Recover the amino acids of this structure.
């Protein structure tokens, strides 16, 4: 399934990985939010942790069709995600994301903290209360 990606950290416009991975590969990038998650500082990059009542702000990124498979592989590599690997730092999951301004729900890929990482962050991580990594 060719879903758009919801990005909330170093892949946001103006951040280092946006230019390295997304420039020239997208046909749309628009403000969006993920309900049911909170952000923790990595440090240096954030983790979205699924949690009822939270909200994470970011961008909904739609890849150009001819770049989709290459971008999916590149983002999985960046996030050190391998399907089914218990050592993953992130898991790539399908979630509903809300387009800002329209309040339209869209299914998207989201990289969220893997279960062991999420447990560690909940126990002693630094919560980003605004839900926006760039604001803090």
């Amino acid at each position: 399934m060719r879903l758009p990606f919801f990005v909330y950290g170093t892949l946001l416009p103006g951040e280092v990985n946006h230019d390295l991975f997304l420039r020239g590969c997208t046909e749309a990038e628009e403000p969006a939010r993920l309900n049911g998650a909170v952000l923790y500082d990595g440090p240096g990059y954030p983790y979205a942790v699924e949690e009822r009542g939270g909200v994470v702000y970011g961008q909904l990124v739609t890849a150009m069709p001819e770049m989709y498979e290459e971008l999916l592989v590149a983002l999985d590599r960046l996030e050190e995600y391998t399907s089914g690997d218990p050592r993953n730092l992130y898991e790539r999951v399908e979630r509903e994301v809300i387009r800002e301004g329209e309040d339209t729900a869209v299914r998207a890929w989201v990289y969220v903290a893997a279960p062991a990482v999420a447990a560690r962050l909940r126990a002693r991580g630094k919560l980003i209360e605004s839900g926006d990594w760039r604001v803090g």
